Inverse folding.
């Protein structure tokens, strides 16, 4: 699952985590501490929105 910051283009990918900020890979967004801030713009965790993964069944169109 990926979550994007509403204030910039930063995307948190739970599969990769954020090792530079001490967040191990496979750490779910929901498991991040509420004090966690966007590493790009400093926005609060609440500013992030979840990105739905689009699956296209008709990609062979
Ligand atoms: Zn941001």
């Amino acid at each position: 699952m990926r979550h994007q910051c509403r204030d910039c283009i930063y995307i948190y990918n739970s599969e990769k985590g954020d090792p530079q900020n001490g967040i191990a890979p496979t750490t779910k967004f929901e498991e991040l501490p509420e004090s966690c801030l966007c590493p790009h713009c400093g926005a609060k965790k609440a500013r992030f929105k979840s990105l739905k993964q689009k699956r296209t069944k008709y990609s062979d169109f």
